[in-house]
Amino acid sequence: MKQNKNTGIILLVIITLVFFLSGCIGPFNLQNPANQDEFRKGNDGILINFLDNAPPSETYEDYPFSIGLMLKNAGAYDTNGGIISFTVEEDYIDLLDNNDIRFNLKGKSLALPIGDQKTEVIRAKAKKISGQSEMHTSKILTSICYPYQTKKSVDVCIDTDIYNIKNIQKVCNVKDITLTTQGAPVAITKIESEMLSSEDENIVKPSFEIYVKNVGDGIAFAKEKVNDACSSAPLKYEELNAVEIKVMMSGEELQCREKILKLKENKDSVRCVFEKGISTEKFVYTTPLTIELNYGYSTSISKDILIKKE
Amino acid sequence: MRKIILITFIFLLFLSFGCTPKTEDSVDYRKGTQGIVMNFMEDMPPAKMYDNMPIDLVVEIRNKGAYPQPNPITGWAINVINPNAKGIGTLYLSGFDDKIVTGMPKQMKIPELEGKTSYNLEGGFDTVLFHGNIVDLSSRKIDTNYNAEFLVISCYNYETIAYQTVCIDPDPYSIKQKTKVCTVPPSYSLSGGQGAPVAVTKIEETTLANKIQFIIYIKNVGSGKVIDKNRLNIDCPYSLSSENLDKVYVSGRVSGYSLSCKPRNPITLTKGERIVVCTIPKPTMSRSAYTTPLQIKLEYGYSSSIQRSVEILNTP
Fold this sequence. Notes:
B: 2 helices
């Protein structure tokens, strides 16, 4: 009799547990998986830092030393074919290794949430200090030049009833979109949407004024000039602060007034129009607008090294 | 003891009579302010979906009103002008990018749905399936999520039938002392609707020199738009204007007469309301006051909408 009672209690406990557990496995509940947009935050591209004590703060003449760099892709885009360049006072320091180092670094992504990083070390040697001087402070300058990208997709409203004559419920309203940063040193800061009427009254032309800004602490330049930017080759005026823009709406490219933006005082804007137009027979809808910026970017760091006489 | 059991049995039998269902006449199915009511079936579609897969959108449709009836009342002054119209109306789907959600039908017929009757107090129910496919977002160079809006707009024909027992008194100001079966009240209030989104809310009766006048108050008591039923298939839902909005066709009968109403059909609701003045010839003075049902019929098109957002997730 007692055994039966115990069996009953155990059965009750099991049933209760099954009920509780079944509550944990709810209906089909799709969690938002991380997508590339999750990583498109911040205003950094490739970050560089000298390694500790490389170069050292002090050294003696005729002594070799190392210049070490830590490179980290803190942005959300891959870079291929970046260049590291070192500049030293040739009267005081000799670079013993090749001064033309290339790098590829993957950006932050699902597979690599913290971004790729690498170290580069080159050998250098302090030259003899000539004359009466007991010591000399020399500057070591390191620059990196790399191709980079900024990409952002936002849902925009396509309103085919510009003058509100259809008296219809609209799923969205045409409005301006303010953005912050997209995990890159050049950012899309604002999108002003407008629906333009056309000579053909059966279509409307979605138009977007896109604002772009250099939010990093480096210089943007034409993406093809990565090699020149970190060399003694001069850059033309039109190649400096030049950012290429490509705008797609629902997979089709928009026509932008200029394909290359010139960031005067670090910012510029451009109007892009879907010239093909959208039929007014279509109803108000939302669609993704994808903006892609391609450019070269360059940042520099420097460190003073005190060279003493032995 | 047997007597007690017998008495108890008889007593229970009497009580059980009170438990019998109400007769069909006592059930007022012409109540309420709704017509065709739509809602999305739960998780059809879900709030979040991956790209590159089929999508099903299921709209549940309930006829919460009292139109149509299995045996419609005939003999009205106004008849349906387009007798060839199939189905009660149409559902229109919009709000999303059809290059991303492809193959979705843009419109579907609303199935024939019986209105509420004394046998079916819930009204008709059916579902409409919109099936499509979500393309691979990456193939359209989209590497983030997309919020698709699904807006379903219904456009359908509907009718309101309002009944009110009125007192017809050909000589209400008679000084002769007569026993009357009824007197004309200041107004008849019709609250709660008549099982349709447009309702008769009040009727005022006046006996004039040679006619009986009824002032009929009409109101859009639903949450949608009233549309000219003759423009429904042409203008609804995308070309609505003052030309076709808020139009109602009014007709009625009382005491064997058809109502003669002003303004002429279709009347236009202003801010969702309107007064219509209808008359019938006055019966002979010799006739004493009597009660009779006043039947009012309103015909119109109606449109309402539902919306759901679906976040389409870019497959990593």
